[in-house]
Design goal:
25% of the residues lie in helices and 29% in strands. The protein is α+β, with helices and mostly antiparallel strands. Helix 2 packs across helix 4.
Length: 189
């Protein structure tokens, strides 16, 4: 279960002082979110999705760079905001990645792989955070249902995809097309 801490004035400095225990610690406006270590299905999907995105983006140098967590992304008051999307794509400018830790508005895509314990945060809290922060597109991958929920902006009501996922980070390149039944079968079976 994702647990918001009762203390609501956390800072990145306080987060860095916590012992390494396998959990993921994120901050949203000073509120601490604690997530247990991910399970096997989660990690298999994260790895395979990263590989698909990485291979696709290598064909289009200068567009973006696939990255996976743990890797810090911050917004607004950078002392009180640090999240770690499971997989994300950084916007590349003049052939270079942005400076680390990455600013939220430098992401072309943020992806969370949902677990039963993180649904509310992934589908609601993080969706709002990423889209308000300037991320162009947000996906929630559901290994249990074998589908992907996708939003392309704050006003987008979202869509639920179970057969095919197309992603075009730039209008001048051909889209990435993921056959979702095949992707989930290869990742999980």
């Amino acid at each position: 279960m994702v647990m918001p801490a009762t203390h609501t004035d956390w800072t990145v400095e306080m987060l860095d002082a916590l012992p390494e225990d396998g959990r993921r610690y994120e901050l949203i406006d000073g509120a601490l979110l604690v997530t247990p270590a991910p399970g096997e299905s989660h990690q298999l999907i994260v790895g395979d999705l990263y590989a698909v995105l990485r291979e696709y983006l290598r064909r289009w140098p200068g567009i973006g760079r696939a990255t996976l967590s743990p890797s810090d992304v911050r917004r607004g008051d950078r002392r009180k905001n640090r999240v770690q999307p499971d997989v994300f794509v950084l916007r590349v400018t003049d052939g270079h990645r942005p400076e680390y830790p990455y600013a939220l508005d430098r992401l072309l895509l943020a992806v969370e792989v949902v677990s039963p314990r993180s649904q509310r945060y992934d589908y609601q809290v993080k969706r709002d955070l990423y889209l308000r922060g300037g991320v162009s597109e947000y996906w929630v991958v559901n290994p249990e249902s074998r589908n992907v929920s996708r939003w392309r902006g704050l006003d987008d009501p979202g869509e639920l995809l179970s057969l095919r996922l197309d992603w075009r980070p730039s209008p001048v390149i051909e889209p990435l097309v993921i056959d979702l039944p095949r992707f989930f079968e290869e990742s999980l079976d």
